[in-house]
Write a structure and sequence with these properties.
Length: 260
């Protein structure tokens, strides 16, 4: 399984890159490469186009409906609805149930059909806690996690490897379950110990991400969702104090290869 980091800036697009977006690639038994996008936050649709033709996407997963995780779906919808190709199928979008209405509100329209067209470009599927998804060679377990809005983390199995993705969350039992024995735990660390203690139920710190990875027995930890005002060395040091395994601080355009 291959993971492309399209954007990883926390809470908003930063000076060096877009907000959260990650592209998964995996070949199936017939050699066909499947591509699933996890989140498409503010500023991410531009760099996505430097990695693949968006028409090659097989599905999109949206963890929650904060702008830094879904807002650039507006650009993807324009691409899909008005593209010169007329053979594009509806693109499956798996997300919290309010997404279609949220997109319509952002685009100042009634209903799901883009202006001047006669069809809905996306096929929406509502995420639920405990759901099992199958997209080509990807098998995904969905769990609701701890965030101020409806939010989900994911356990993704493909090619004999396991990737856990936290989405946005504070520490919770569901996150430990998702990360159990994962080959790679892609985990947000948006807060810093001490500085952000006044906020609860929103984000992890590097320390809490490391604690979760250690409890879960994850093989490696990749930290993400670091906001522009935070020195990445701080959450990295916090995580290293809690987790003895390999730790990576992801950067825009990183490519991570998973092996079991």
């Amino acid at each position: 399984m291959r993971l492309h980091v399209i954007g990883c800036s926390g809470s908003f697009a930063g000076p060096d890159g877009a907000a959260s977006s990650y592209l998964l690639e995996q070949e199936d038994a017939d050699g066909r490469v499947w591509r699933v996008l996890m989140d498409l936050g503010s500023g991410a649709f531009g760099p996505l186009q430097s990695v693949i033709d968006p028409a090659d996407l097989d599905a999109v997963i949206i963890s929650h409906l904060h702008p830094d995780h879904y807002l650039d779906l507006t650009g993807l919808e324009v691409f899909w609805a008005y593209h010169e190709r007329t053979d594009l199928p509806q693109l499956p979008i798996h997300a919290p149930a309010p997404l279609p209405e949220r997109l319509s509100a952002v685009l100042s329209r009634d209903g799901r059909i883009p202006d001047g067209t006669d069809r809905v470009p996306f096929e929406y599927g509502a995420l639920t806690d405990g759901q099992e998804l199958r997209i080509g060679p990807f098998e995904m377990t969905v769990r609701e996690v701890q965030h101020p809005v409806e939010a989900y983390g994911f356990r993704i199995r493909a090619g004999g490897s396991v990737l856990a993705y936290s989405g946005d969350t504070d520490a919770c039992p569901a996150l430990d379950e998702l990360a159990a024995d994962a080959d790679l735990f892609l985990c947000e660390a948006g807060y810093v110990e001490g500085r952000d203690d006044r906020f609860t139920g929103v984000h992890l710190t590097g320390r809490r991400a490391g604690d979760c990875a250690a409890r879960a027995g994850a093989r490696s930890l990749a930290l993400t969702h670091i906001p522009a005002w935070t020195d990445p060395e701080v959450p990295l040091a916090e995580a290293r104090a809690a987790f003895p395994g390999e730790i990576t601080m992801v950067r825009p355009m990183d490519i991570l290869e998973l092996s079991s």
